[in-house]
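Quick start: read one record
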Amino acid sequence: MESLDAASFATMSAVIPGLGQWKQGRRVTGVLQLGTVAAYLVTAIVSENLEAVWLAVLWNVWSCVDAFRHARREERWHDEEPQESTDA
């Protein structure tokens, strides 16, 4: 995972659904996030149902939360790793 903070990954997913997950190396999750938001938007346009737009917005908010939480878990995991001693 790149050395970006959790807010950066959440922002990426806000701009393009699933981008935060993609940059975290979670390719399948990123594609699913993008595909789901796109499907909701296409459904909203084709059916002229604005409620589907809200579903897309809510799903994208979840995409941001997911990217943020995953990055925070990774940060904590790396913080808890034992440091190698450099004493000779």
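The CA atoms of residues 3 and 18 lie 18 Å apart.
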